[in-house]
Amino acid sequence: MAQVLPGEHELRRVIDEDREVEGLGEADLLELYRSLILLRTYDERSLVYHRQGRIGTYAIFWNHEAAQVGSAHALEDDDWIFPSYRESAIGLLRGLPPATVLSWWRGHPAGWWNPADYNVASICVPIATHVPHAAGLAWGKKLKGDGAVAIAYFGDGATSEGAFHEGANFAAVMGAPLVLFCTNNQWAISTPLEAQTKAEALVDKAAGYGMPGIRVDGGDVLAVYEATREAVARARDGEGPTFIEAVTYRVAPHATADDPRAYIDLARVEEEKQRECVGRYDAYLRRLGVLTDELAHEFKEDALATMRAAIAAAEAEPPAGPEELFEHVYVDPPTSFGSDLAELRRILDA
Ligand SMILES: Cc1ncc(C[n+]2csc(CCOP(=O)(O)OP(=O)(O)O)c2C)c(N)n1
Ligand SMILES: [Mg+2]
């Protein structure tokens, strides 16, 4: 049996150490910035669209962008992404149209896509159920020998779920090329991390599965990139899965339906907001002399225009027909579907 050292507790950092990441040129650094601005803008506009009644309940990911962008940029296009609801817009980094993701939040069928078109699986709402799916896909990739890896995104709360355990254990035993990416934002709705686990750090769970664990500053896009690149390289080299704990803080409500004032320390939230991840990277790039006001303005304006066009496209989708509730459920639908649909049409007058 391979000896696996306990996961590192020290947070890996790049920005706060004013280091540079080997292999990243100026164009790469700006591409990371552009992606951060795209996701930040997506998130901020989505909150407004929710308030305007144009999308449904929405899971805010403000201050999670660095964890998402840093990790996604460490992948190749052939690698598979398994997002949770907190990473709803991560497919944008793969060319998934933002109108599609907005349609998803509108509960419209146009919000679903063929995962194989982008190597991005459906957005997973049940906690951790996608971890075994990702492990299975990664194992399949290994059997086919095509060199691709998978990454599964989930939260601190997900580590208490059976599906997380099953997926992590299976991936380790099968040597599946999988990155288990845990965004530890220290809350699972109103459950704080200390009520979630008695483990000193979530990264310690890695040792229980016999896989390496990396603990990284989740607000540091470069540190996340570097850590994920290492995990991806291990997976591609046939060395199996890695558990990454990206430590950040949820400074927004769990979702638009939540009011965290009932359970959160607002002073802590304010403190964390001061260190939010896009501003930290912005300041780093300016220290390096890579980012100018003009470029920052251009990226922001592009992202805003993208979102304006996206919400217009999502709203232009014709309403879904009631028959779509019944389609694609069975190859041979039961005969009752016919009368059920007729009844639904009668009720809806559709
Ligand atoms: C299997 C399952 N149980 C419960 C829920 C309800 N639920 C939605 S979000 C959430 C908290 C998850 O917290 P965490 O894994 O830390 O992710 P975060 O929301 O912080 O990104 C829960 C319990 C669910 N979606 N699925
Ligand atoms: Mg959480």
Secondary structure topology:
Elements (H helix, E strand, L loop, with lengths): L25 H26 L13 H8 L7 E3 L15 H8 L9 H4 L11 H15 L5 E6 L6 H13 L3 E7 L2 E2 L2 E2 H4 L8 H5 L3 E5 L3 H16 L5 E6 L18 H9 L2 H12 L4 H23 L20 H13 L2
Parallel strand pairs: 1-2, 2-3, 3-7, 6-7
Antiparallel strand pairs: 4-5
The structure holds thiamine diphosphate (TPP) and magnesium ion.
Magnesium ion binds next to β4.
Key descriptive features of the protein:
350 residues; alpha/beta; Rossmann fold; 2 domains; five-stranded parallel sheet; two-stranded antiparallel ribbon; 7 strands; binds thiamine diphosphate; binds magnesium ion
Largest β sheet strand count, sense and barrel closure: 5 strands, parallel
CA distance, first residue to last residue: 62 Å
CATH topology annotation of the largest domain: Rossmann fold
For the secondary structure, the number of strands is: 7
Specify the CATH architecture of the largest domain. Answer: 3-Layer(aba) Sandwich
Structural domain count: 2
Task: Provide the structure class.
Answer: alpha/beta
Strand proportion, as a percent range, falls in 5-15%
- For the biggest β-sheet, the strand order reads 1-2-3-7-6
Q: Can you give the helix content as a percent range?
A: 40-55%
Query: What is the general shape?
Result: globular
Provide the CATH top-level class of the largest domain: Alpha Beta
Question: What hetero molecules are bound to the protein chains?
Answer: thiamine diphosphate, magnesium ion
Give Rg in angstroms.
21 Å
